[in-house]
Specification:
The protein is of the alpha/beta class. The protein has helices spanning 2-6, 9-32, 51-63, 75-84, 103-123, 158-166, 189-199, 241-250, 256-271, 286-292, 317-329, 338-343, 387-401, 415-419, 433-437; strands at residues 36-41, 67-72, 90-92, 95-97, 128-130, 134-138, 141-142, 145-146, 151-156, 170-172, 176-178, 184-186, 204-209, 238-240, 275-280, 299-302, 307-311, 348-353, 356-366, 370-378, 406-411, 424-425, 446-451. It has a 7-stranded mixed sheet. A 6-stranded mixed sheet has the order 2-1-13-15-16-14, sandwiched between helices. Helix 8 (241-250) runs antiparallel to helix 9 (256-271). The structure holds coenzyme A. Residues 327, 332-333, 376-378, 383-389, 409, 411, 413-414, 416-417 line the site of coenzyme A.
Length: 452
């Protein structure tokens, strides 16, 4: 205890931040345990010095009880192989036309990319497994263009994959499909990753490549996208299917890779994936950050977000503390502990999106038919998305419903924000007597009040 008291403030703050981060990680682990994550990993990353680190991080996810299935991207490996044999590649609308002559080389390149992932998984102590679980047929001739040995997916053997995942294997599916006669077809790995979402319940689908996400700067936004949350480096943090469609519609100048990601993410969400993430494999720890913190650095497209404000329960306490921790450390909010929250738990509400908590607030009853609006906080990455506003509106309505005559609050940092809701400046004398007696003159918070 004495050592703790002697710590310099920065060190103390650091310790609080680390503890807060660990809490956050634990809350995510329990949420994702047993879920399936599909990762499409571009082969252009395989020569990058951080590639072994990426696979090690994926192995870590697996060791924590998350089921993992990998689809290697193979475009670069195929290009390289065909070039070595001086075979020209032809494309039509981004789809490779695979000739009979090219097919064995395409197979070799695809299986080689899968094999490289398998080797790195083995080195990280995990068991990868490859197999022919995808049936395909020829794309045929479309508008006069013969796609030859380029195929489309017919069926995926869900039962075998489910069994392998239950047995803790990591299936690796190279983008090759076979027809009933055993003829191989070159299929798209993006299509394969997306199609898998129709067959198996998928918690998250990752597109891991050289792009880190969708940059907000310079993007045109519309009525659905004017308030999107951003990451620290200015990427769009999250958007739902409708918002992704709006961005595509208003920004024809977007690069091909970004359009491709957004279109595939929308398709995957429609196919059943809950979350589709675009992250860069060139950034150390990008997968872990995206999974285990609210401060990921990629773009996520999600399906049918279900958001609600509800009364907090005991299981929410670690999340409430996690959200408030940084603000407490900076002095924006007063100190709270698990015990102090538990004592007044019925006063707390949380803002949850698909069971993940991103905001909180409380309404404490006082004498004279007054109540205090308190503990308003929104997780750093979810600010500026209307969550704080929704929580405050909810508490005001709750106050009206319960028949309070007056609401008050104490704030040091956000008086201007609260004016927007109709609060006005008051004085310490406006506080109910028991609150006035405890008013901290050193903190000198502004008093705001609202008659209901
Ligand atoms: C204040 C807080 C709750 C707002 O949550 P939020 O979900 O980001 O708020 P909303 O999305 O509803 O509103 C965002 C708008 O409020 C503005 N805003 C945020 N904090 C503000 C502040 N302290 N003062 C004035 N305006 C502020 C933002 O700039 C943004 O404006 P814009 O829409 O013009 O860009 C959040 O920033 C937070 O948790 N702050 C730290 C804790 C705190 O100070 N709590 C209040 C003390 S009781």
């Amino acid at each position: 205890m004495a050592i703790e008291q002697n710590l310099v403030p920065e060190l103390k703050l650091q310790k609080i931040e680390i503890a807060g981060f660990i809490r956050e990680v634990f809350s995510y682990i329990s949420r994702f345990k047993g879920q399936l994550f599909i990762l499409k990993i571009e082969d252009s990353l395989m020569d990058h010095p951080l590639f072994p680190v990426l696979i090690r991080d994926i192995s870590l996810l697996h060791k924590l009880g998350i089921k993992v299935l990998i689809v290697p991207g193979t475009r670069k490996s195929i290009d390289r192989q065909l070039k070595a044999w001086e075979i020209e590649s032809e494309f039509n609308e981004g789809v490779r036309l695979t000739s009979e002559e090219a097919l064995p080389l395409v197979e070799q390149a695809s299986l080689g990319a899968a094999q490289r992932i398998m080797s790195h998984l083995t080195a990280s102590g995990c068991h990868g497994i490859q197999g022919n679980w995808v049936s395909a047929r020829s794309l045929g001739v479309i508008d006069g263009v013969d796609y030859m040995r380029t195929g489309k997916i017919d069926r995926i053997q869900k039962d075998i994959l489910t069994h392998l995942l239950d047995e803790e294997y990591i299936p690796i599916l190279p983008p090759i499909g076979w027809n009933k006669l055993g003829h191989a077809y070159n299929i798209s790995s993006t299509e394969l990753a997306t199609e898998l979402c129709k067959y198996i319940e998928v918690g998250k689908l990752f597109f891991i490549g050289n792009e880190c996400g969708i940059k907000a700067e310079g993007l045109k936004t519309g009525s659905m996208t004017s308030n999107l949350a951003l990451t620290d480096s200015g990427l769009i943090s999250a958007l739902d299917i409708d918002q992704a469609n709006e961005i595509l519609r208003l920004n024809p100048q977007l690069e091909y890779a970004q359009v491709d990601y957004l279109e595939n993410a929308i398709a995957a969400c429609k196919a059943g994936a809950k979350r589709v993430h675009l992250i860069s494999g060139e950034m150390p720890g990008s997968v872990l950050q995206e999974v285990f913190s609210s401060r990921g650095d990629g773009t996520m497209v999600y399906a049918n977000q279900y958001s609600q404000i509800r009364q907090a329960n005991v299981d929410d306490i670690p999340d409430i503390l996690r959200i408030m921790q940084d603000y407490i450390a900076k002095g924006f909010l007063i100190q709270r502990t698990s015990e102090s929250i538990l004592e007044k738990l019925q006063d707390y509400v949380v803002y949850a999106i698909d069971n993940a908590i991103h905001g909180c607030g409380a309404l404490h009853a006082f004498e004279d038919n007054c109540a205090e609006v308190a503990a308003i906080a929104v997780a750093a990455n979810y600010r500026k998305a209307g969550i704080g506003e929704a929580v405050v509106h909810h508490l005001i309505e709750l106050g009206k419903m319960r028949g309070y005559k007056k609401l008050f609050l104490l704030t040091t940092q956000a008086p201007d924000w609260f004016y927007n809701f109709g609060f006005r400046t008051g004085t310490v004398d406006d506080l109910p007597p028991s609150k006035k007696a405890k008013y901290n003159t050193k903190r000198n918070s502004r008093v705001l009040i609202m008659e209901l």
